[in-house]
């Protein structure tokens, strides 16, 4: 209920959290955790995640992200979105571990419903989505990039990308897996999912997790030039083709959303899984000290 109310509030431009501004002819709207600017090629928005320190996809971040996408989908002048990050060195650390640890089943169910919602909206978007991956992109961060039509990654060996869930002692859901298989093929996905591989940019390019690797200072200009190429294709034929390629994968979740929420909730509530997450969080903390 509270989230639905927040959603209504945010959808209204000019509300306290969602504001629309005119800056040098470019339009922008900003929530706390997502900034959207319409600059560069006509009809293109740049969406920047800004949920420091690591752009983890908290419930609030997911909600703001979904609402921003919804706004762009409803704006008929927007044909393409470049998805990137405002947090230095991090594209997104993926799902927020603190939303999946030490909470109650109702919270897990609510969180997962919002993860599904963002994924469905991104994966089935009619807009052209290009990701400018300017930092680390594990698990849910990789998922965001995989939803895009084209992925450009910064050539920095410190940045890695992949579905690393198995390293955390958790299992990527079937729709994460389906999208991985669609992108890199069954054999590579099978190996990478079991090992929880986090690929360097060069490896990610080789296996097909990303489409292009460029020097870090060229990620945005490359994403823009890719977008220009895709904008030259008539929308109706490109959209119908995208739908043809992605519908079966999206439908398999749509048909069993409730069951998928139940699966997630009972899996993540298990003591053994909570223990694994606890250990992983401790490892992240120790890395610092
Ligand atoms: C059926 C179940 C399926 C569920 C599917 C889940 C998919 C997921 O997305 S699970 C999330 C997987 N994510 C990760 O494994 C990433 C973990 N994080 C990292 O590897 C690193 O943080 C980083 C490479 C992203 C960044 O490294 P950096 O050295 O810059 O920062 P840190 O000092 O490690 O982190 C800063 C701060 O942020 C906290 N944090 C990091 N990741 C997450 C996260 N995903 N959720 C929540 N919080 C996170 C980290 O603990 C630090 O917190 P403190 O400052 O409080 O210590």
TrEMBL record:
Highest taxon of source: Eukaryota
Role: Key enzyme of fatty acid beta-oxidation. Able to isomerize both 3-cis (3Z) and 3-trans (3E) double bonds into the 2-trans (2E) form in a range of enoyl-CoA species, with a preference for (3Z)-enoyl-CoAs over (3E)-enoyl-CoAs. The catalytic efficiency of this enzyme is not affected by the fatty acyl chain length.
InterPro entries: ClpP/crotonase-like_dom_sf, Enoyl-CoA_hyd/isom_CS, Enoyl-CoA_hydra/iso
Keyword hit for Mitochondrion: yes
Family: Belongs to the enoyl-CoA hydratase/isomerase family.
Gene source species: Mus musculus
Pfam families associated with the record: ECH_1
Name under which the protein is recorded: Enoyl-CoA delta isomerase 1, mitochondrial
EC nos: 5.3.3.8
Enzyme class: isomerase
Keywords on record: Acetylation, Fatty acid metabolism, Isomerase, Lipid metabolism, Mitochondrion, Transit peptide
Subunit: Homotrimer.
Reaction equation(s) it catalyzes: (3Z)-hexenoyl-CoA = (2E)-hexenoyl-CoA; (3Z)-decenoyl-CoA = (2E)-decenoyl-CoA; (2E)-tetradecenoyl-CoA = (3Z)-tetradecenoyl-CoA; (3Z)-dodecenoyl-CoA = (2E)-dodecenoyl-CoA
CC annotations in GO: mitochondrial matrix
Pathway noted in the entry: Lipid metabolism; fatty acid beta-oxidation
Compartments it resides in: Mitochondrion matrix
One of the GO BP terms on file: fatty acid metabolic process
PROSITE patterns membership: ENOYL_COA_HYDRATASE
GO molecular function: delta(3)-delta(2)-enoyl-CoA isomerase activity
């Amino acid at each position: 209920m509270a989230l639905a109310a927040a959603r209504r509030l945010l959808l209204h431009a000019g509300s306290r959290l969602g504001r629309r501004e005119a800056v040098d002819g470019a339009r922008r709207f900003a929530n706390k955790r997502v900034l959207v600017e319409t600059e560069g090629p006509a009809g293109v928005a740049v969406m920047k995640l800004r949920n420091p320190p690591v752009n983890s996809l908290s419930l609030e971040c997911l909600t703001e992200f979904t609402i921003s996408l919804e706004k762009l989908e409803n704006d008929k002048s927007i044909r393409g979105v470049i998805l990137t990050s405002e947090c230095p060195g991090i594209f997104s650390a993926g799902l927020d571990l603190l939303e999946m640890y030490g909470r109650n089943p109702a919270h897990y169910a609510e969180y997962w419903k919002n993860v599904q919602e963002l994924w469905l909206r991104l994966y089935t978007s009619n807009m052209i989505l290009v990701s400018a991956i300017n930092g680390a992109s594990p698990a849910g961060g990789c998922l965001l990039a995989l939803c895009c039509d084209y992925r450009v990654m910064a050539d920095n060996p410190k940045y890695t990308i992949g579905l690393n869930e198995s390293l955390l002692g958790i299992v990527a859901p079937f729709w994460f897996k389906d999208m991985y298989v669609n992108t890199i093929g069954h054999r590579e996905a099978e190996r990478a999912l079991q090992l929880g591989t986090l690929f360097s940019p060069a490896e990610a390019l080789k296996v097909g997790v990303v489409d292009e690797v460029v020097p870090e200072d060229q990620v945005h200009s490359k994403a823009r030039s890719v977008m220009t190429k895709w904008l030259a294709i008539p929308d109706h034929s490109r959209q119908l083709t995208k739908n043809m390629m992605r519908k079966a994968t999206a439908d398999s979740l749509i048909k069993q959303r409730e069951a998928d929420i139940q699966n997630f909730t009972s899996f993540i509530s298990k003591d053994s899984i909570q223990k694994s997450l606890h250990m992983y969080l401790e490892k992240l903390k120790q890395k610092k000290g």
